[in-house]
Design brief:
This protein folds into three domains: 35 residues; 83 residues, no CATH class; 73 residues, no CATH class. 62% of the residues lie in helices and 3% in strands.
Length: 232
């Protein structure tokens, strides 16, 4: 053993035989590899959002809403996508109504207060909408809304009807007054007739009326008999 190095001669021979350049290449290679990774970390951007397909399994079963009518589904979304926002209409069942008019009417009713006194309901009444099955209901709604606006502004048929009824009441009161006057006249006439009836009854009881009636009846009988004989 060589005392200078404290190793055996065999170890010293092996250590002396190792190539020096190979170790240098390995060290430089590792340094360049670490440096390239460090530089790539600044150059390559890591995405903040990763898009991937995901399946969500709910604990409750899905709710199915069945339409009351059947028909062909018409897609109204311009660019169907996987995402949509609240209140967005994606498709409708084809019917006689124009879905654009229905959406326009809904938007107008949502933006305007139709029950305010200064509402612009005549803009709604002047527009024409193709609403299909709800056309009759919308017409009834417009009529009720117009009457409500006329009632608020004092332009309604009820005031005219009230004035006509008041005039009819005045005419009826005048008729009642006239009938009361007529009733008084009838009562006075009744009293007069009752007086003459009592007077005639006294004459009848005293056989004065009968003595006057018999000659007249005899004359009528003779004329009737003469008329019958002449016809024969």
């Amino acid at each position: 053993m060589n005392e200078k190095y404290g190793h055996s001669e065999e170890f010293y021979d092996v250590a002396q035989s190792m190539p020096g350049k190979y170790s240098t290449y390995v060290i430089y290679g590792l340094f360049l590899f670490v440096l390239s990774i460090f530089i790539m970390g600044f150059i390559v951007e890591v995405p903040e959002r990763v898009y991937a397909e995901a399946k969500v399994m709910s604990s409750n079963p899905p709710i199915t809403l069945n339409a009351q009518i059947s028909g062909k589904i018409h897609i109204i979304a311009n660019k169907p996508s996987l995402s949509c926002h609240k209140g967005q209409y994606l498709a409708v069942i084809e019917n006689s109504a124009n879905y654009k008019d229905v959406l326009a009417l809904k938007s107008w009713l949502g933006q305007n207060d139709i029950w305010s006194k200064n509402s612009i309901i005549y803009e709604l009444l002047g527009n024409s909408y193709a609403l299909g099955e709800i056309e009759a209901d919308f017409y009834a709604f417009k009529v009720a809304l117009l009457k409500y606006d006329q009632l608020q502004n004092g332009r309604n048929d009820y005031r005219h009807s009230l004035s006509m009824i008041e005039k009819q009441i005045e005419a009826n009161m005048m008729s009642v007054k006239n009938r009361k006057e007529l009733l008084k006249s009838c009562i006075a006439e009744k009293k007069i007739r009752s007086y003459y009836l009592k007077s005639d009854s006294v004459l009848y009881l005293k056989n004065i009326i009968m003595n006057l009636i018999n000659p007249i009846s005899n004359i009528l009988k003779r004329k009737t008999r003469f008329f019958l004989l002449s016809r024969k």
